[in-house]
Design brief:
Helices cover 26% and strands 36% of the residues. It contains 16 helices and 27 strands.
Length: 560
C-alpha cells in the first residue's frame, strides 16, 4: 500500500516537530512540513530526517493566510495537520482548503472560539468524503477520551475537573504565550456551583497533587473543555479546566498580571509575550522537565455508590510537550483504519482512549487510575467510632452530595463590646429566641476539592464554613473561615458527638493555642428523637463569649 502523505503545518515548531517525530516512528506516513520561512523549514526537515534515517521529511513553503485548495492539491496529500496556532480569533481557512482539496484535516486547536467554527463544516466534509477533527490535543481530545471511559454507565455526574501542570523546562513558543495572555484576566465563562458564571482567566489559583509529581499550582484556563465538559457530561455542580506553571514565581506572576489586566484602562497583554518568554528562559534551570495532567470526575456509578474517578499522568524526561500531539497522531491512525466516517466535528469523544494510550506507551510517561468510593468527612475522621453515634447524628453527617435541614435555635450573643464587634465582623448571628434555622451541607469533593461546606441561615442571617477530615481516623475535623483554620477534636459515643478546640493556624502557619478562640459543641438526640446541637464560641484568655446557639434540626426530605 502506498504510504499516505501528511502535511504538518508548523512542523518546525515546539509541538509540530514532536508530532512529526511520532509520525516518522511508523511506516504508514510520508511527512511534509510547511512554514513561511524557507531556510528554517528546510533546516527543520534535515534535522527531523536525521532523527529517523531512511525516512525523509519534505519541506514546503506555505502561508496559511493565503492558503488555497490548489496549493494542497499540488502536494498530493492524504491529510493535513495544523499544529501551528495560535487559534484564538482564527478562521477555519486551512480546514476549508483541506476539504476542497479532498484531504482529511486534524488540528491541535485549544481555542474555545475556533473549535466552534468546525462543526458547521460537517455537510461540506461529508460531501467531500473526508474527516475533519478539531481539538485533537490534550484538551479536548485526551481529556474527553479519559472521561468517556471513567464515567461510562454512571447514573449521574456531579463534577468534572481537568488540569495540566507543565514542567518549567517545557518549550515556550511565543504563539503559546500570546494565546495565554489573550485571555488572562479577561472574563471566562465557566460552569461552577451549578450555574454558568464569568470569572477572570488565570484566576482561582489552587494547589493540586498529582501522584508521582507532587504539589502544583493551577488556575482557570480558557479552553474548549469549559463548554464541552458541561455539555457532554451534564454535571450538576461544576465543569472546570485549569492549567499551571511549575515555578510559583511564574504562576503567581502571571496571576498578578491577570489581575492588572482586569482594570478598565489596561488593554491586551499579548504585547508582553516576547519579554515574558525571555524572562521564563532566564528561570529555565530552576525547574524541572517533568509535567503532568489530572482528570477527575465525581458522581454516582451504576451500583448507586458515590465515587470519585481519578486519572493521572506524569511525563518524564521532557516528554510533556509531546502529549498534546498524541491525540492527533492517534486520530490519523484511526482515520487510516476507516474507523471514523467522513464528518466535521470536535475531537472530543471521537478518538478512543485505547488509540491514544498506544501512543503514550512508547514514551517515558506514567499513567495511573483509581476509583474511590466517597466517604463523608466525619466518617473518615472517626473511622469505626462513627458507627457508635446515634442514628440522627450519623444521618446529618452522611449528607451525600447535598442535604438540607430545618429547625430553630435560641441564640445568645456576645457578652462585651469587644466580643460583639468581632462577632459582627465574622458575621455570627444576632441574639434571638426560637429563630428559624436552615442548614445546607454540601459535599464539595471533586474539581480538586475535598471538603464539606456548611451554610447556616438564622432567619436571613447567613454564615458559612468549610469542614474536612484532618487525617483519616485521627478523630479531628478542620473547620475554616477564610484563611483561618481551626482544629476540632471529636469524641463519639452512643449519646452523641462532642467537639473541642485543638489548635488553629493561618494557611500553613500554626498559631499559639493560647491566643486562639475556644469552641465547644455537643450534638445529641432529644426525647422526641430529634437531632440537637449546642455550640459555643469564645474569645481566648477568657475575654468573653462570641456566640452560643442551641436548638434542633430535622432533615428535609426531597420531593418525589
Amino acid at each position: 500500500m502506498t504510504a499516505r502523505r501528511v502535511l504538518v503545518i508548523g512542523g518546525s515548531g515546539a509541538f509540530g516537530s514532536r508530532l512529526v517525530e511520532r509520525l516518522l516512528a511508523t511506516t504508514d506516513f510520508v511527512v511534509v512540513i510547511a512554514g513561511r520561512d524557507k531556510a528554517r523549514i528546510e533546516r527543520a526537515a534535515r534535522d527531523l530526517s536525521g532523527l529517523h534515517p531512511g525516512f525523509a521529511v519534505e519541506p514546503v513553503v506555505l502561508d496559511t493566510a493565503t492558503l488555497t485548495a490548489d496549493d494542497l492539491k499540488g502536494l498530493r496529500l492524504w491529510a493535513v495537520v495544523d499544529a501551528a496556532g495560535p487559534w484564538q480569533g482564527a478562521t477555519p481557512r486551512v480546514a476549508e482548503a483541506a476539504i476542497d482539496a479532498g484531504c482529511h484535516y486534524v488540528d491541535l486547536a485549544d481555542a474555545r472560539d475556533f473549535v466552534r467554527t468546525i462543526p458547521p463544516l460537517d455537510a461540506r466534509a461529508r460531501r467531500a468524503g473526508v474527516v475533519v477533527l478539531t481539538g485533537a490535543s490534550s484538551t479536548p481530545g485526551l481529556s474527553n477520551a479519559v472521561l468517556d471511559r471513567m464515567t461510562r454507565n454512571w447514573g449521574k455526574v456531579e463534577t468534572v475537573f481537568a488540569a495540566i501542570a507543565s514542567g518549567n523546562r517545557a518549550p515556550r513558543g511565543k504563539a503559546v504565550i500570546r494565546a495565554i495572555l489573550s485571555w488572562a484576566g479577561r472574563p471566562v465563562r465557566v460552569f461552577e456551583n451549578g450555574v454558568w458564571q464569568e470569572q477572570p482567566g488565570w484566576n482561582w489559583p489552587q494547589a493540586i497533587r498529582i501522584e508521582g509529581l507532587g504539589r502544583r499550582w493551577v488556575s482557570l484556563a480558557e479552553t474548549p473543555d469549559l463548554d464541552l465538559l458541561a455539555h457532554r457530561y451534564r454535571p450538576t455542580r461544576a465543569a472546570v479546566f485549569k492549567a499551571g506553571l511549575e515555578l510559583p514565581v511564574l504562576h503567581f506572576g502571571l496571576w498578578a498580571l491577570a489581575q492588572w489586566a482586569r482594570l478598565p484602562f489596561v488593554g491586551s497583554l499579548t504585547g508582553l509575550a516576547e519579554p515574558l518568554r525571555r524572562m521564563a528562559l532566564w528561570l529555565d534551570r530552576l525547574g524541572s522537565d517533568r509535567g503532568g495532567m489530572l482528570v477527575e470526575a465525581v458522581g454516582t456509578e451504576a451500583a448507586g455508590r458515590r465515587v470519585r474517578a481519578v486519572w493521572q499522568l506524569v511525563a518524564e524526561a521532557g516528554s510533556g510537550p509531546t502529549i498534546p500531539t498524541l491525540p492527533a497522531v492517534a486520530a490519523l491512525k484511526v482515520i487510516a483504519a476507516g474507523k471514523i466516517l467522513p464528518r466535521a466535528d470536535i475531537a472530543a469523544g471521537r478518538i478512543p482512549l485505547d488509540a491514544i494510550e498506544a501512543e503514550i506507551e512508547r514514551l517515558p510517561i506514567t499513567v495511573t487510575t483509581r476509583t474511590d468510593v466517597l466517604v463523608p468527612q466525619f466518617r473518615r475522621a472517626l473511622a469505626a467510632a462513627f458507627d457508635n453515634l446515634p442514628t440522627p447524628v450519623r444521618g446529618l453527617h452522611s449528607p451525600g452530595a447535598v442535604a438540607d435541614h430545618v429547625g430553630e435555635a435560641d441564640i445568645y450573643g456576645a457578652k462585651n463590646p469587644l466580643a460583639r464587634a468581632i462577632a459582627r465582623l465574622i458575621g455570627l448571628p444576632r441574639e434571638g429566641h426560637a429563630v428559624p434555622l436552615t442548614v445546607r451541607i454540601e459535599d464539595m469533593t471533586g474539581a480538586g476539592a475535598d471538603h464539606e461546606v456548611w451554610t447556616r441561615d438564622f432567619a436571613g442571617q447567613r454564615f458559612a464554613s468549610h469542614l474536612s477530615a484532618a487525617d483519616a481516623g485521627a478523630g479531628v475535623i478542620e473547620e475554616w473561615f477564610g484563611p483561618f483554620r481551626f482544629r476540632l477534636a471529636l469524641e463519639a459515643n452512643p449519646y452523641g458527638l462532642v467537639f473541642r478546640s485543638a489548635g488553629w493556624r493561618i494557611g500553613r502557619l500554626p498559631l499559639p493555642a493560647l491566643l486562639g478562640p475556644e469552641a465547644y459543641a455537643v450534638e445529641a438526640v432529644d426525647e422526641d428523637g430529634r437531632f440537637t446541637f449546642d455550640v459555643e464560641m469564645s474569645l481566648p484568655l477568657r475575654l468573653g463569649r462570641l456566640v452560643r446557639y442551641r436548638g434542633h434540626l430535622a432533615p428535609v426530605r426531597p420531593a418525589r
